[in-house]
Amino acid sequence: MAEISIMKNIPEKVIIPLKQHNGTVCEPLVSKGDIVKVGQKIGECTSDICAAVHSSICGEVISIEDFPTPSGTKVMSVILKPTEVAECVDFTPRDATKEEELISIIKDAGIVENYGTPTHLVLRPGDGFNIDIVLINATASEWIWGDYKSPRDYALQILESLKLLMKASNASNGAIVLRNDNSEFISAFDGLVFDGKRLNVAPLVGKRRASYYFKDQQSDIVILSQDRIYGQNILNLFTYNVTGRHVPFNCNPASVGVAICSVQSAKAFYDVVHNGKPYIETVVSVSGKVNNPQKILVKIGTPFKDVIEACGGYKGEPGKLIANGAITGVAQYVDEVPVTKTTFSITVQDKSEVLRDEPLPCVHCARCVDVCPVNLIPARLATLADQGRFDECNQMYVNNCIECGRCAASCPSKIPILQLIRYAKVAIKKAYEDVPPKESSNLKLGCSCGSV
Amino acid sequence: MTFTISAPPHRKQDITLRKIIFAKILALVPVCIVAVYFFGLYALALIIVSMVAAVVTEAIIQKVFDKPLEINNGHAALIGLMIALVVPPEVPIWIPMIGSIFGVAIAKHAFGGLGSSVFNPVLAAWVFLSLAWGPLMQPVSFPMIGAISDLVLETGAGHLIGVSPLALIGGVYLIYRRYIEWRIPVFYFLTTIVFALIIGDSLSYVLTGAFIFGVLFLATDTPSSPVTKNGRIIYGILCGVLTVIYGHFDNYIYATFYGLFLANCVASFIDNNTLPGSYAEESFFQRKYNQIMDKIPFEKLGVYLDE
Hints:
The complex is a heterodimer. Chain A is α/β, with parallel strands linked by helices.
């Protein structure tokens, strides 16, 4: 079982960005010179597409200014200097009986999915959307729960939080999706008795998807397993794999009634309901060229520099610092960027690992076609995007791309395929934004809103 | 402390174009050695002259047109080597030279250089040489695999490539390492064998060195073959059918080369007509399969299916 160590040293400076999600920036509730406590709310939502921000340490506000974040942008951030004494806001367990309250608890605690959407919007996407299945995606996440005695306890906790999530979203069914090769997880869940029902881990094979197992096991909650899936944009493919529902163009899984949560947000939700603790710490896995690679529980706002120091410091001279995975992550300019709610891994590469490739012409070797998980022809899409032929990209389903980067990784000509595909996707998105939906006659826009 | 910034992916497979091309050259070395052993040092002269001519042609073209010099990636050398292997060993020394110049200058660079050739440069050069100097390109004999030993050393070989079908086994290793994709060779090979047996041709004329070379190295030439998964299967089958049709009326050596040359013509047509759909869409066969499965009353039989 992967051990999770806890970062004990409090860094010299903690940077808490006021926007750690996709949406609007929070309004700061503190000003320079104020003393804040652990768990105090320092950023209040200004709109509905927003999640509150809390202080993770006890300290003095030394400034509020733009600061770089791991996503590569600069965001208004509260910069704190820790004080000697750590004072803490009294955490009180919340009453989890009414579903409306649960949603406001989530919003208050600032829980955000690891792909950026605030959790309350995932569970309650708004009018016209009815969530009927909540999925917890445990295929990418690691074993992150803090205080458990045996793997069974852990599994029970995660099921407990799934029940809470289902209650909050008013969904009738829920599923936890594990990875096929993750034997630890599978053995923890297999044969577990929950709510008087025995749960078995069921593989997703062929036509047997989630709804089959709901019927087969006579249960509202099932545990499924599938292959590892990774990428920046996996939600639609994940929905299809698990439930068999096809998400229409330009829509998210909410339009077919599916809410996808991560293990991190499920844990944060469990914590806030049972301990009253808002989302102020997260588990980051540090890998690559550091002296002591490990999974470490850090406070949100800790600079990468201090996290790496807690893991034994750099091994040799670092060449590249990557947030959120070596395949699809974002390379960082500086190591002072803070850990945010959407950060789940830090990778360090040394100088010799940094790639310097000159792209050559495509030789049509079709390696990218063979590795693509969503049946695209990446080489052709890259050529079309390079020439600005975005309409043709769109016809070839460029929006299905999950941005896993397998094509670019396997290319012998070292063509930046992933970058070109993203370029095409952004261009298509912008083109659609410019056209008012009602006046366009030849463009099919928008979601079918609930219907498949 | 400075960090490098770049777009993802930050880790890539350790594979380059140069590596693939040199692996192919290496896989052809055994058959060259057998050819030199069998035909004498003149065969070695043919190979060297052909390779040098190809590389020099490419260098001159890239110098004249002010392009970056790309002879280091070995593609021209590979073309030269393959052209030398598909000529008879008795030809004058200038034949593979002209072939290499034609293959590199016209079939590769006039069509747009690396990765853009419509026709496989080797086949284009072979067709050009056969049409221009027919009597010289006529081999002394056409091989026939009579015994197992002929697979190792074919004494009736008419071309350099024909000396040893078994020496081309390196190509199979390249498929295993994914340096060559597997769909075209597998379907080409199976179609040819099955179709030849159906119309009653003896396999001893089919399994020649030239045919194995065609399956492993010529048909899998990447720019002139389709890229879609289904397209590659169709292309492999088409290559097989064309080879057997030509081979039934003439011989399987010319059949391999002409069949592949003709299949090259329709490669991009196959590509454009087999573009895959969205991942959740059903293909034609899946749709038919589902229609049949829907008619079976699984619920009554006590089997649960998905919705």
